[in-house]
Amino acid sequence: MTKIWLYFVLILTALLMLFPFALMFLISLTGNENIFLDYKNINLSLCAYKNVFDSIPIVKYFLNSFVVSSLTALGQVVVAALAGYGFARLKFKGSEVLFFLILLTMLVPPQVNIVPLFYLMSKLGWINSYQALIIPGIFGGFGVFMMRQYFLNFSAELEDAAKLDGCGPFQTFFKVAMPCAVPAIATLAIYTFVVTWNSFMWPLIVTNTDSMRTLAVGITIFKGSFRELTLWGELMASACICSIPVILIFIIGKKYLINAQEGAIKE
Q: 57-266: what fold?
């Protein structure tokens, strides 16, 4: 009986979580003039989606977001995995102090870094470029901390066996440690992809043309100010389109997330 109630609570919680997405999709199928009418008098259509593709270069925004998010996730995984393995398995002078300094960066609000980062991008001539959108997101204390914690529990026997076979630190990392860390790597990649995909403030600041804008920035054209009308249908339609890659990546990477969680519980 207890198990039945547990499932009931979980199903109810899942439905509550899905309700905003269902409402978003319903509004996207409703004309702007019909949103505040009684639902019995509403005729659903795909006009809002057509208007989105006609009003903004959403395909370009989508591709920009995908390229930026994918390359940022890839770079974050490579840098964090190498740094995490080094801090966990390689002992060198000052490693604890350096790792502590990296942890301190996690305590700094991202908004504090915007001005110095923008100044740096400006001096490098990277404003309105992929470099400005990708490179700052590659380096992060959270990824290093996460991978270090995983490699701290890495089997010493496997590492010793690799050394006996003549593998150096890099060979041990790429041939032994990396394949064993696939769940943690996938988790970090998914997390970084989603955070970058949803990023708004930084792309808004460093891009100034439609050719470089990301999807999160581009769809704000439908959000009116107090003097303008908000196009709720088009705004929700573009939000639905923006949600598709995030949902797909969670579905594809679900087994890796579960494996990483189970591994964390066992450890």
A: MetI-like fold (1.10.3720)
